[in-house]
Amino acid sequence: MMEKIPTWRKEEYYAHHLIKEAVSANDVANTANFLLSDESNHYTGATFDLNNGGYLR
């Protein structure tokens, strides 16, 4: 999807990230593992945003 976004817009998007390195497949897997573990027993209806603290505005 990012290939269709103009370069100036991507730079603006990345500038808003609080964490500068990209989200990796391993990051997503770690989150899934947490949610499948007993450590997440009390999470219900939560949203986990893996977006480095940045949002496309």
Number of helices: 2
Low-confidence segments: none
What's the story with the biggest beta sheet? none
Helix content: 25-40%
Would you count the extended β strands for me?
A: 0
Q: Which whole number gives the mean pLDDT? A: 84
Determine the strand fraction and express it as a percent band: under 5%
Assembly state (oligomeric): single chain
- What is the structural class? mainly alpha
Please write the string of helix (H) and strand (E) elements.
HH
| End-to-end gap | 15 Å
Supply Rg: 14 Å
CA-based shape: elongated
InterPro entries: NAD(P)-bd_dom_sf (IPR036291)
Describe the structure.
The protein is mainly α and 57 residues long. The protein has helices at 7-15, 25-36. The model has no long low-confidence stretch (mean pLDDT 84).
